[in-house]
Amino acid sequence: MLPILFLFLSLLLLPSSHAADFCVADLTGHLTPSGYECKEESSVTTDDFVFSGLGVPGNTSNIIKAAVTPAFVAQFPGVNGLGISAARLDLAPRGVIPLHTHPAASEFLVVTQGTICAGFISTANNVYYKTLKTGDSMLFPQGLLHFQVNGDGTKAMAIVSFSSPSPGLQITAFALFANNLPSALVETVTFLDDAEVKKLKKLLGGTG
C-alpha cells in the first residue's frame, strides 16, 4: 500500500505543465483543418485572449448594405483549438447577409439592435425563418444555407457565435457569379438565361 501512496504523491508533486490548457495560434504558420500550430507559451500574452473588434460598427456602404466583423482565429488567436469563435453583423436598412453556408460550424445568433428576418434551408428543402426582434436568438445548423435580412427602416445588429474557430464561409451568389466559370455552364446549372447570368457576373465581378 505504501509504495502506491508514494507513487501517487510523487505524481502530484511533479512540475505542472499548462501546454494543454490552450493553443494560441501561431499566425506565421499555415492554417490546417486542425487549426494553427501553437505559439510558444513564453510568448503568449493576455492580448491573445482579448478581442475588441466586436465593439466597432462595420462599414455597411457596400452592395449588400451589411458588414461582418469576424473574431475568427485569424483575428483572435486565442480561440485556436477551442471550438468557438464569434462575429458582429451590422445591417443598414434593407441590408442583407445573402444565402451562405459555414461548412465547419453551426451558428448561434443574438439580435442586439433592431429586427432581423433570418432563416435557413434544410437538406430536405424545408425553410425555417422568422423575424427576430432585439433579444431574440436563432440557431443555424452546420453546413446549411442561411440568411439574415433587415427589412426595417432602422439599422440592425447581431452578435453570432460559431462552434469552430474557423467556421468557413461560402456565399452562394458570389460562388456562382463572382468567378470565371463560363457563363454557359452557369446557365446550365442554374436554369438562368444568358442575359441574367451576364448581368449578375457584371454586378458581382465575375468573368467568362
Automatic annotation (TrEMBL):
Entry's localization field: Secreted, Extracellular space, Apoplast
Protein name as it appears in the record: Germin-like protein
Lineage summary: Eukaryota, Viridiplantae, Streptophyta, Embryophyta, Tracheophyta
Disulfide bridge partners, by residue number: C23-C38
Annotated signal sequence range: 1-19
CDD domains: cupin_OxOx (cd02241)
Residue intervals of the Cupin type-1 domain: 52-198
UniProt GO MF annotations: manganese ion binding
